[in-house]
Design goal:
Growth Hormone, Chain: A; 289 residues; single chain; mainly alpha
Length: 289
């Protein structure tokens, strides 16, 4: 949990620095400079991954280079199905995938409507969009530090639900405060606040996913997670694109607040027993120490 909280902090450092650096590069070097640096970051990441060493697996594997294209696609399909089979057989994972699907639907809608929300509802411009992105990154930095400490005391199964609900409620406040109050800075403050439960939700979910399966199924599980999130997020994008003008920005973007609240309720009910087990284990470990 501590490592995942620090990972959330790391992500938000990048979220805070990235937009500012991109703006400077866009002004000085243009779009080509931004694209070149973007490509370079992936090259550096690939080099770092290449340096990671892992224990050899006893089960022989066929290298992708030894398979034709059709065999590789079949292999990917089988791995994805194997991951989904693990989810279907594990109650905790079924709950987590329900939460992931709810989050993904809201994120998909948010990705399409965020800029129109800032420019049309909050009457902001590109500068204000940047302010809000930076504000959430600041909140995420604080949340990463806080959750690294909190995670040592509260099991992730008990932390996920409240953090997700609080994240959704603050999102609803962000999307609707302009109906009652004027002033852009209210939104900035709320975006800082939402970063804290956001970091808690991310860290708790990742920890639960990592600890709910054995080593040999973890890669397959995260493949299924990524695919599921991508498919549902795409559905959210399509919904926002098709119905955005028809329904309006506010009714649709509020799904981004409602979905985490529903996900938090699912977590509090579905992970209650898992949370008790983790709490008892932590208590026993503390007593032994």
């Amino acid at each position: 949990m501590t490592a995942n909280s620090l990972n959330a902090l790391n992500n938000n450092v990048a979220r805070l620095i990235g937009p500012a650096l991109g703006g400077v590069l866009a002004l000085s070097l243009g779009l080509y400079g931004v694209a070149l640096l973007d490509a370079l970051t992936f090259a550096v990441a690939a080099g770092m991954i290449a340096l990671i060493t892992t224990p050899e697996r006893s089960v022989p594997e066929v290298k992708p280079s030894e398979m034709n294209v059709q065999a590789q696609w079949i292999s990917v399909w089988r791995e994805w199905r194997a991951g989904l089979a693990v989810v279907a057989q594990t109650p905790t994972l079924r709950v987590l995938f329900t939460i992931i699907a709810l989050w993904a639907l809201g994120e998909g809608i948010m990705s399409v409507l965020f800029v129109p929300f800032v420019t049309e509802v909050l009457q902001g411009q590109a500068l204000e969009v940047g302010w809000l992105m930076s504000a959430q990154a600041i909140g995420g930095l604080v949340g990463g530090v806080v959750m690294a400490k909190v995670g040592e005391r509260i099991p992730p199964a008990l932390l996920l639900g409240p953090c997700s609900i609080l994240f959704g409620l603050i999102d609803l406040a962000i999307f609707n405060y302009s109906l009652f109050f004027s002033g852009f800075m209210i939104g900035v403050v709320l975006f800082i606040l939402v970063g804290v439960p956001g970091a808690g939700s991310f860290s708790s979910l990742m920890t639960l996913l990592q600890t709910s399966v054995s080593d040999e199924y973890r890669g397959r599980l995260f493949g299924a997670v990524t695919t599921t999130f991508g498919v549902v997020a795409l559905m959210g994008m399509v919904i926002a694109t098709v119905f955005g003008d028809m329904v309006g920005i506010l009714p649709l973007i509020n799904v981004q607040g409602i979905a985490p609240v529903l996900g938090g309720l699912v977590a509090m009910v579905g992970l209650r027993e898992r949370g008790k087990e983790q709490g008892e284990t932590a208590t026993a470990t503390g007593t032994a120490n």
